[in-house]
Amino acid sequence: MNARESALKVLYKIDVDQAYSNIALNHELKSQQYNKLDRNFITELVYGTLENFIFADYIIQQFSTVKLNKMDPWTLNLLRLSIYQIFFLDKVPDFAAVNESVDLSKKYCKRASGFINGVLRSIIRSKEKIKMPDKKKDFSKYLSIKYSHPQWMVERFLSYFSEDFTEDLLKTNNETPKLYIRVNTLKITVEEVLQLLLKNEIKVEKSPLIPEALIVEGGFSELETLEIYRKGFIHIQDFSSMLVAKILDPKEDQFIIDVCSAPGGKTTHIAELMKNKGKILARDIHQHKLSLVEKNAKRLGVNIIKVEKFNGKDLDHELLNTADKVLVDAPCSGLGIIRRKPEIKYRKEADVIDVITEMQLKILINASKYVKSGGELLYSTCTIDPNENHKVIEKFLNISSEYELIDISQQYASMLPGSHEEKMIQLYPNVHGTDGFFICKLKKK
Ligand SMILES: C[S@@+](CC[C@H](N)C(=O)[O-])C[C@H]1O[C@@H](n2cnc3c(N)ncnc32)[C@H](O)[C@@H]1O
């Protein structure tokens, strides 16, 4: 199977079966003995096409006699894949993209071969003349098509941020994020990991801000197959997620509750920072996800975590005033991690945020009751939407007078990218180069 066919199959799974891009792609890459070049090309085709669905559909609509919603999904995704190559990949000549697509159509959507050939050839002929929406007359529509974000999302961003900031954010959302790994300091030192990676010909750079964070050059996609991963020497985690456990700042022998813990990235980091001494109660609403927490903990050699299925919207009277620190890494819209999971752009509805903020506040209020007097509560999300972040904290502080904000911008300044004026921190992909993330820490009087 060639790279384009593999990419098409992955795109179909994401679009039609609603698969997560990373899972569908990894599954395909593991299903056959692809060489490195093919793996990289498939990855580029899948993410590049997925990032540009709305742009591709805008172009298709101008040249197709068949409406998008009447088109068979193999045909539609094959056209999208071809348009990505024609408009964004200089290394692929246009005619090659068309010929390969027509060949592929014979296997996946035979009856549409002629149609695909015709549409793509017309697009190539008129490529330079295609009109985008007028930037001055309809800025949000222009941004929506150019950067393939739904128009409601663009308008929402424009209501929070300036025009330049919004455009920069949308552009960055279509870029490839850096790949970070966390060294498991329970098992190995950073220097030893550097040596082992070098032996595997994987180049990494140390993060200047978090000692256990390493940036993998070129974003090697198969870290999980390495012995160093299987042995639990490393964990794959973005920088901003690592910041959460660092700012929670847990100590040995403390009792920590993580109310939304799966798949366990932050919980296991917390355990490492506690030197595997103390107690962590890791909860989540989904049992199947909790088994991932257990699996990660086992691989990383962590044995202080007890997992428990529990709905954070319910209050557990047994835990009142018991924990030294509580983490609420809340379920959220995920608008800060579009670079990692571009499908988020297409799967969210405009009203999702209002529903989610109520849940976030409820979980936070319950969690706050588990903290001992003098203890700390940390709230984090992977979104840049102020309604899920600052607004939730504002509402929380209005009803929870025993809590006060800790100035983490000051206290943890040495590990924060950029400078922060507020006590809580908001990271943006286009400003800080990290996932879009919000972190806020509160102290119970
Ligand atoms: C942002 S993720 C947590 C990521 C995790 N902290 C980590 O670092 O790996 C949010 C989690 O909240 C869980 N969740 C959603 N609704 C919940 C609820 N009502 N109570 C508890 N957990 C919930 C989801 O299953 C999901 O695993």
UniProtKB/TrEMBL annotation:
Active-site annotation: 382
Chief location: cytoplasm
Record carries keyword rRNA-binding: no
Subcellular location: Cytoplasm
Catalyzed chemical reaction(s): cytidine(967) in 16S rRNA + S-adenosyl-L-methionine = 5-methylcytidine(967) in 16S rRNA + S-adenosyl-L-homocysteine + H(+)
Gene3D superfamilies noted in UniProt: NusB-like (1.10.940.10), Sun protein, domain 3 (3.30.70.1170), Vaccinia Virus protein VP39 (3.40.50.150)
Alphabetized InterPro entries for the sequence: MeTrfase_RsmB-F_NOP2_cat, MeTrfase_RsmB-F_NOP2_dom, Nop2p, NusB-like_sf, NusB_RsmB_TIM44, RCMT, rRNA_ssu_MeTfrase_B, RsmB-like_ferredoxin
Protein family membership: Belongs to the class I-like SAM-binding methyltransferase superfamily. RsmB/NOP family.
PANTHER family cross-referenced by the UniProt entry: NOP2 YEAST -RELATED NOL1/NOP2/FMU SUN DOMAIN-CONTAINING, RIBOSOMAL RNA SMALL SUBUNIT METHYLTRANSFERASE B-RELATED
Name this protein carries in UniProt: 16S rRNA (cytosine(967)-C(5))-methyltransferase
UniProt source species: Clostridium aceticum
